[in-house]
From TrEMBL, chains A, B:
Signal peptide region: none
Domain of life: Bacteria
Protein's UniProt name: Oxidase EvaA
Domain dTDP-4-dehydro-6-deoxy-alpha-D-glucopyranose 2,3-dehydratase residues, every copy: 32-234, 271-472
Pfam family of the protein (one): Hexose_dehydrat
GO molecular function: lyase activity
Amino acid sequence: MIDSSGARQAVLEAERVERATASAEDAVMSMADFHSWFNARTRANTFQVDRIPFAELSGWDFDPDTGNLVHASGRFFSIEGLRVRTNRPWMGEWSQPIIVQPEIGVLGILVKRFDGVLHCLMQAKMEPGNINGLQLSPTVQATRSNYMKVHGGADTKYLEYFRPESRGRVLFDGLQSEQGSWFLHKRNRNIVVETEDDVPLDENFCWLTLGQIRRLLLLDHMINMDSRTVLACIPPALTGPQGQEAGDDPFTRAFLRSLSDHGSAVHDSGRILSWLTELRSRQELVQRRVSLRQVTEDGWRLGSDVIDHRDGKYFDVVAVAVQASNREVAAWTQPLVAPKQAGLLALLVKRIGGTLHALVQARSDAGMLNVAELTATVHCQPGNYADVPAEHRPHYLDYVLTAPTSRVRLDVLHSEEGGRFYHAQNRYLVIEVEPDLDEPDDRYLWVTLHQLTSLLPHSNYLTVELRSLMASMRCLAQRL
Amino acid sequence: MIDSSGARQAVLEAERVERATASAEDAVMSMADFHSWFNARTRANTFQVDRIPFAELSGWDFDPDTGNLVHASGRFFSIEGLRVRTNRPWMGEWSQPIIVQPEIGVLGILVKRFDGVLHCLMQAKMEPGNINGLQLSPTVQATRSNYMKVHGGADTKYLEYFRPESRGRVLFDGLQSEQGSWFLHKRNRNIVVETEDDVPLDENFCWLTLGQIRRLLLLDHMINMDSRTVLACIPPALTGPQGQEAGDDPFTRAFLRSLSDHGSAVHDSGRILSWLTELRSRQELVQRRVSLRQVTEDGWRLGSDVIDHRDGKYFDVVAVAVQASNREVAAWTQPLVAPKQAGLLALLVKRIGGTLHALVQARSDAGMLNVAELTATVHCQPGNYADVPAEHRPHYLDYVLTAPTSRVRLDVLHSEEGGRFYHAQNRYLVIEVEPDLDEPDDRYLWVTLHQLTSLLPHSNYLTVELRSLMASMRCLAQRL
């Protein structure tokens, strides 16, 4: 197993340096002030999350006909069953519980220039599944139910900036997918709006520069999933040279060339689209919604406190009771999906002709809308493969688990959406590999970061996990 | 009602001129020779299509549990039920039969330069639902079942050029949607490959220039739907000045500027994506597959010879027996969807600042994968709205039906996919409107043809009907 002391050292160094350089980059708030503010928010906003039996859920019930776990309003989301048929040689067919949420929500970040420097309005927000309570979320994080106010709660703050009639300038606006293993066809609208208004600052919000946010992305469980996906969508050209991007060493130069459209890519963009189109045509992914009761045929057990798989793998479905002081509703109960262990998301990178390339794979997950999306080189919960024959284990999983610390460029734990997942965390790694390491089969391709970024305006190209990695690795171009 | 004598006159004029100019454009086959060849193929390839009761279908049965009409192999396609919930003010919820075909097929055109001029390899192909037997189809038109040879038929000719190991140059390769009103989430791979090989010419195939194909697109029911969608995807830049494109009159100049990236567009591309993202987030489109038997609750009748709606609207499901001499299998039976009347697809265009703009709408159909796609200004079967209150009739439907001939730039009848639809035809119109005609509501937007074309490499932006129109209207830039 690798240890992550190298990357941790970088974080500590980053925190030391950032205190010195924060004022130099004209942030409205120093990092020291940020941490003080964040700690104060943590103390001020009390919350409590308790596991409860399903029978104690309020407003949620198992439908008597199907066994589906649904809300009485017919809104929010439901836990149903999905039967999947693929043409993969291993585990080609299965059924599983899945979160069904056909509504498209809004994840929006409001940005504003202070003395010419772009700042993001970030929110300290509790979600019941968060491992650590508060995390930094986007300015707005609302399901359609939320902002149509089905639950009768308070207004969603700052939502007016993301409405069509807003006077702001839209920097990005696209639908992005979420976890295909746990959600059926789920997408959210990711939007970034720049305003010139005087924006009143609520006590749970703060303005941070992109450079500051990139440093915070090196901290475990600080920037939530919704923030990461939106941050990944901010066009690199807009962020400019902010954050003391440096081109001194060959790795950083190769990284910056990869982000720009000046790098030399081994495949042109037409080739990438054709490769993905061919895979999407060849890959069979037949999804059929079934009742939650029907997934018991494939080893799932519907208990009174938990829905789980008899092999002890994959995930559980649990229920929680929540009390919180800074949410639209002060107390509620809800189901959550609880993965059995942390996931591993490792992106292998190497320099080709002076431009950094990332090895992405086209991956099909149970609930994906468009057959396959691009994701990290290794993307799995390793425990699910503990008893799987070597030829069917994910490519490079063992390589990643034994990579020397000196090759690890990024190593951080992030939480996944705490509104739907209970203590779901993934370890995000960027590992620079030997020049001779190559595509293991035709589902993998070496691409530049610019090529990945240019796919972001269109839906369902990059998984939320790859977008998380892309947001997090931007710090690699910063002199920390 | 408009009459189409102006456009018909243009076709006749085109046919006169093309005979004179075909040799000038270095086509390998003159238009006169093409028509002789096509007529000979029609005489040589006998076929017969007869309506039969469902009970006489061979290999197809109504599933005893669900009533779904399925093939014994579990492959090809099935007729099932779909329940749809939207937040539209009129007909917001309904259920209907729908074609379910989760496989992605291949629609491929092989191109080759003869004396420097790009030619497409087109096929004279019978489909059982064709109103007129033979139409010109792409080089390859194959479901995954076809080329995996589930039915044990002959090899699909020229398929090897579209495999990953082909030595050809891929000019376009993307997934494109098909009719959202009749198909659930259906897409096909649209691919164009250029070869330098000597390609042996099968008797049912011919080489045509793009200029020749554009002239044929002015003829009713000649170029089939699968050809039109692939032709729409051929990048305009690749087709070059071929076909005597002329810039003499202001309309043609505005058209050519609209196709190029030099035109001045009223909305930038970021604005278009943001507009569509906002609509996709706001529009509710909740799809739930139900059994075919369940659609009877909404007025559908399951007869022994036909499945139809008691209002006499929408479409029927019928069964046919087919005998054909030039298909992989010589005789078979199958179900088909038969629309109750021809559809109307009208694109309103106008010159804005010397660049032609098209008024597109973002439209949600029952079976769409990505909530909404861009389509023609008017896109409907007019009869479905005969008894609908004026405020809920499609915008500009009455305008189109009464437009003066002098404003009609294109008017042609094309068939929809004859392998799934029985005598399905749509009237495709391009109408140049008054300068003061504007977007009727925020679901409509003026865009340039270049902006539409630049969305084609990505899936599910343009309906198959709009792609048909775009392929057909390319002739507007030709001196005919």
